[in-house]
Design goal:
- With 287 residues, this protein is mostly beta strands.
- The chain has 2 domains: 104 residues, Herpes Virus-1; 142 residues.
- It is built from 3 helices and 19 strands.
- Strands 9, 10, 11, 13, 14, 15 and 16 form a 7-stranded antiparallel β-sheet that branches. The protein has a 4-stranded mixed β-sheet with strand order 5-19-17-18.
- β17 and β18 form a beta hairpin.
- The radius of gyration is 28 Å and the shape is elongated.
- Pathway: Protein modification; protein ubiquitination.
- It is an enzyme of class 2 (transferase).
- It catalyses: S-ubiquitinyl-[E2 ubiquitin-conjugating enzyme]-L-cysteine + [acceptor protein]-L-lysine = [E2 ubiquitin-conjugating enzyme]-L-cysteine + N(6)-ubiquitinyl-[acceptor protein]-L-lysine.
- Belongs to the RING-type zinc finger family. LOG2 subfamily.
- Pfam families: RNF157-like_N, zf-C3HC4_3.
Length: 287
């Protein structure tokens, strides 16, 4: 309680010894946290935006298409036509449907916009990892017959040149969309989007940089994948991804400390919106 004189409250100063100045005063605002300023007590203290730290939620995907393996192979029985091929993993038996000039409809259903010219193909598959899919002979596409106008028109109307639907026994499915690009006179399929339809919800798949060698213990050629240890402490394994740049480069401990010091990714220095903690399961069962 302070002293009251003449009806005016006078609080004594908290520090009366001039040789001992008061401690640093931090102005803390909602969503922001201060950090140590080496310039001294009188220098301004910059504010660092608070970064949200989340844990990933596991979603079961029964069938997964390896997008890096998507390509066209010549149909030996039908000169001039090409068959779509790729590798995929399946935890359950199911079917794969290939469509050309397809549009994504409600509930991730595919709608063929040129079914009369390019009929869709559906093939059943058994359970198994590392399977190779290839369209049956005679069901491919004659790439040389495609005009530049057709390809441009499809791009401008949300129609994908190539669409692959992979699904098991449940309504859940994975959709892979690709566009045709001409390179040195030859057409190649480039995957532009992969989505999952699980329990009535749609998820767009995004690649995480640095998670591959974390899961299998192998190194990569990219500088962001030179090892599986946290880039800050260099001891703990990486388990936290920076969003939106998607660099998996830190352990959860360093990530939680980083939230209060900077809002820049340690790899690319882009602003951080969220930190996503991911538990990588290296004990994959084939059952």
């Amino acid at each position: 309680m302070g002293n009251v004189t003449g009806g005016i409250r006078r609080d004594p100063p908290p520090y009366t010894n001039p040789n001992h100045p008061p401690p640093l005063q931090y102005n803390q605002y909602q969503g922001y946290y201060p950090y140590h300023n080496p310039q001294g007590a009188r220098a301004p203290y910059p504010q660092v935006a608070y970064v949200e730290h989340q844990e990933a939620v596991t979603i079961k995907n029964d069938v997964n298409l390896n997008k890096d393996t998507l390509r066209f192979e010549p149909d030996e029985s039908n000169p001039g036509k090409f068959l779509l091929s790729f590798t995929f993993d399946a935890n359950v038996p199911g079917s794969i449907t290939v469509m050309f000039f397809a549009k994504e409809g409600k509930d991730c259903d595919l709608i063929a916009t040129k079914a009369d010219l390019f009929p869709s193909t559906t093939v059943s598959f058994p359970k198994g990892l590392g399977q190779k899919f290839k369209q049956p002979c005679g069901t491919g596409i004659e790439l040389s017959a495609l005009s530049e106008a057709e390809l441009v028109e499809a791009n401008e109307s949300d129609v994908y040149h190539v669409a692959v639907k992979a699904e098991g026994k449940t309504p859940n499915r994975q959709i892979t969309h690709a566009v045709l690009e001409k390179e040195k006179g030859e057409y190649k399929a480039k995957v532009v989007k992969q989505v999952l339809w699980v329990n009535g919800s749609k998820y767009v798949l995004k690649e995480i940089y640095g998670i591959g060698n974390t899961a299998d213990g192998s190194g990569g050629e990219d500088e962001t994948e030179s090892g599986k240890e946290c880039v800050i402490c260099l001891t703990e394994p990486r388990d936290t991804t920076v969003l939106p740049c998607r660099h998996m480069c830190m352990c959860s401990g360093c990530a939680k400390l980083l939230r209060f010091q900077t809002n820049l990714c340690p790899i690319c220095r882009q602003p951080v919106n969220r930190l996503l903690e991911i538990t990588v399961n290296t004990n994959v069962s084939n059952n």
